């Protein structure tokens, strides 16, 4: 590899006045708390809002989600490359973009849930397409710098795993608030209320702004590439390195399938409880149990990873959640209580993948530097985010088409038994199969087990020292 290329992208400390600590952890937690106030709200209720309030067919909603997420995937990559070519400011390279773009992001999110009386169905269809695509694009301008920021807050592998854990806690807190309060706020007489969901969007939007401000003020970027030695980014070298990065490719595949499953179940679960179980408010309880299960996994993640490794812990968790959903499916006619308990056990297993997933990203960023000598945090993170957006696109499209395929009819007070069974299978058997696929990818394709990850850190450290 070119000696100059390695030198030009080697990160060095720029600020040690305040060492890494609790302020950074809380700051990073607040970032994903702000992100997920709207992300969880839209993934949980936007589809049913479009079908039951705007009266857009589920298949059309699926098409919208597919188009928007595919667009967002390319927006992620473009924004990541853009940020990697920008100079760091006195406040850092990444977090100023969070401050600049958070208000437009929140405003666009609120506009998605605006209902204007007297408008035609064609107007609502156009409104849905425009507002949702704009929101998704603006989400990239905040989420890409936020995700990339972890690698410049600290260069310590243990501290980076800690940041991944705190990020997950932020996402879970948002999920807890929306899962518990959401159904009680947005549903009236087992039907979604246009006025109430708009009110919820405004409240969560204000909370999101507060969280972004906290992230900006509490977190601190400490690492940057020296400006005087930077060379023009070589896209050819970058792409060649990305293609050869086996850990990146396999974790991209796992993330894609995982996001398909998460988004699909998030959309279908509303119909499962509203129609199959006949009580949408019970979503509050299942959300509470699943998120409590995740918080129970948080203190166990670090010692388990330290002993067994990220790959080993995450893959075991994926096997547990797959078995749980298979069990629910084979019960065929479970009670709400049975569903809540078994899915909670499954969520406990999947939590370990969620907790360490962002630490996986820092590992593949290190591997990219090892292969190419280029430290391109935003580009690699953007590619990872791009895969997640493709997963969301597929899930949104599949979710809408699948709900239509099983015969869901919004005009019917009670769905047919065949439709109810189809919804049940979408919410149980399909996730069980997908989670099993993620388990197999981690076990057989992802190469960075505990020993190889430690060796990578050692080799990369030695390579960096040779150029100083």
Automatic annotation (TrEMBL):
Compartment(s) of residence: Cell membrane
Membrane topology recorded in Swiss-Prot or TrEMBL: Multi-pass membrane protein
Domain of life: Bacteria
Transmembrane stretches, start-end: 26-47, 53-71, 97-116, 122-144, 165-185, 197-215, 248-271, 283-301, 313-332, 338-361, 393-411, 423-446
Alphabetical list of InterPro entries matching this protein: MFS_2, MFS_dom, MFS_trans_sf, Na/Gal_symport
One BP annotation, GO: sodium ion transport
Keyword terms of this UniProt record: Membrane, Sugar transport, Transmembrane, Transmembrane helix, Transport
One Gene Ontology molecular-function label: symporter activity
Keyword Transmembrane (UniProt): yes
Protein known as: Sugar transporter
Organism of this sequence: Paenibacillus borealis
């Amino acid at each position: 590899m070119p000696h100059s290329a390695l030198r030009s992208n080697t990160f060095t400390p720029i600020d040690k006045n305040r060492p890494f600590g609790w302020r950074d952890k809380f700051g990073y937690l607040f970032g994903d708390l702000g992100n997920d106030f709207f992300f969880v709200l839209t993934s949980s209720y936007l589809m049913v809002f479009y079908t039951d309030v705007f009266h857009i067919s589920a298949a059309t909603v699926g098409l919208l989600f597919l188009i928007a997420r595919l667009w967002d995937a390319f927006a992620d990559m473009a924004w990541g490359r853009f940020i990697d070519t920008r100079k760091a400011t006195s406040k850092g390279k990444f977090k100023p973009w969070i401050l600049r773009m958070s208000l437009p992001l929140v405003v666009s999110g609120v506009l998605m849930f605006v209902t204007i009386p007297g408008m035609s169905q064609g107007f609502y269809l156009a409104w849905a397409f425009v507002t949702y695509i704009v929101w998704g694009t603006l989400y990239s301008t905040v989420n890409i710098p936020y995700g990339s920021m972890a690698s410049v807050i600290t260069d310590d592998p243990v501290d980076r795993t800690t940041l991944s854990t705190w990020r997950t806690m932020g996402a879970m807190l948002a999920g807890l608030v929306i899962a518990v309060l959401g159904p009680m706020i947005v549903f009236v007489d087992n039907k979604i209320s246009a006025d109430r969901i708009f009110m919820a969007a405004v409240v969560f939007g204000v909370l999101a702004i507060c969280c972004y401000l906290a992230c900006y003020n509490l977190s601190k970027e400490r690492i940057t590439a020296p400006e005087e030695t930077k060379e023009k980014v070589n896209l050819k070298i970058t792409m060649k390195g990305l293609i050869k990065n086996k850990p990146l490719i396999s974790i991209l595949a796992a993330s894609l399938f995982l996001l398909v499953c998460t988004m699909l179940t998030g959309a279908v679960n509303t119909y499962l409880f509203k129609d199959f179980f006949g009580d949408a408010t019970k979503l509050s309880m299942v959300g509470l149990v699943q998120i409590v299960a995740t918080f129970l996994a948080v203190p166990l993640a670090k010692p388990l990873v330290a002993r067994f490794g990220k790959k080993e812990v995450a893959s075991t968790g994926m096997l547990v959640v797959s078995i749980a959903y298979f069990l629910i499916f084979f019960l065929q006619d479970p009670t709400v209580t049975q569903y809540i308990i078994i899915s909670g056990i499954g969520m406990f297993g999947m939590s370990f993948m969620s907790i360490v997933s962002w630490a996986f990203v820092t590992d593949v960023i290190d591997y990219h530097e090892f292969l190419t000598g280029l430290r391109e945090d935003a580009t690699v993170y953007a590619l990872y985010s791009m895969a997640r957006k493709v997963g969301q696109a597929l899930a949104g499209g599949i979710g809408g088409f699948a709900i239509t395929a099983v015969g869901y009819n919004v005009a019917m007070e009670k769905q047919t038994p065949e439709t109810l069974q189809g919804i049940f299978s979408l919410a149980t058997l399909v996730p069980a199969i997908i989670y099993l696929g993620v388990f197999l990818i981690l076990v057989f394709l992802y190469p960075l087990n505990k020993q190889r990850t430690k060796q990578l850190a050692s080799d990369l450290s030695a390579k960096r020292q040779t150029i100083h």
